[in-house]
Structures are given as C-alpha cells and as structure tokens.
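I'll show an entry:

:::
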Amino acid sequence: MRITNKTLMPAESVHEDVVDASGSYVIEVPEGARYEGVFLLKGETLKIAVHLTGKNAGCVLKIAYLSSTDLKNDIVCDVYHDAPETYSSQIVKGVLAENGTVDYHGVIHIPFNSQKCEGSQNHHAVLLSDEAKVTCVPELEIYADDVKCAHGSAIGALDEMQLFYLQSRGIDLKEAQKMLIHGFLSDLLPGSFEPQIADWMVKHA
C-alpha cells in the first residue's frame, strides 16, 4: 500500500492527479488552489482525505471502481472544509460483476466557522450479476448554517431498453453491454484508462 502526503502551494491554482492504484492519500489544498484527482480502483482499499485550508480552496474527486471478486473493496473519502468559502465534489462510479463487493463511505466535514461552503457527493453503480453487492454510505457532517451541500446514490442493472435497442441494430448482447459500460465510465475517466477498462470487460463483462 502506498501512502502519499501532498501539500499544494498557493501558486498551484490547479493540480491534477490521474492514478491507477489503491492506497492512502492525504491532500492539503491552500487558499485559492484547486485539486483534481481521478482514481481507478480494481481491488483492495482506497482512502482519500482532503483538507481545504484556505478561502476559495477546492477539490474535485473522481473515482471509478471495477470489482469482480468476493474480496471486499473499500473506498473511503473524507473532505474537510477547514476554511470558509471552500468547495468540493465527489463523483464515484462503479461496475460490479460476478461476486464483486464494494463499500463506499464518503463524508463532507464542515465545522461551525466554515460558512459559505459548497459540497456534493454522487455515487452510481451498475451491477452485472445478482451476486454483486454495493454498500453506499454518504454522510454530511455539517455544523455551519450557511452552506450548500447535497448527496445522492443510484445502484441498478444496465438499462434493458438500451440493450434491446442496440441488439435490434445487430449488436450482440455482450458487445451491447460493453458499449453501455464504456459510455457509463467514459465521462469520468480519461482515455489513458481505456486499456485497463477494456481488459477488465473482456474477462468479466
């Protein structure tokens, strides 16, 4: 497991990480800086803690997971709005096949003195088998009264109508499933992750 401690300098208005790995990450974002992280998880545990320590600090966390084993994969995201007028976004998408099992726990922490903060969490998962299982626990730990926060989660199978439409155009079921999965993840992940996703789908989708 890799542990990364990252502190952005004020001059780094935007810092981006694109990571295909599990492990623990601690990121500190100072005033006026923005952190963007894209993570692809294919097993084990991912823990991310982001501290927004100055006004107008922000972060966008994009996480995709692919799970097909009976080993539980854990995703833990904690975002601490340690200063007022900070913003955060957590976007998590996953695809589970066979006995895939995932626990996602995301928390937005806003103390009393951190007014005018904005935070959001969104989780979406596609289950490709009846044995796959997702547990999603989004939390808002808010003590300030002038904030904008929201969270949501949706878990389900591939859309039967979309599959029917693709098959009616001569595309076989397996290929139609792969197309829909690719479309589901493509707006979240950069093109550099396509080989890993394609390899996983060949084996499990």
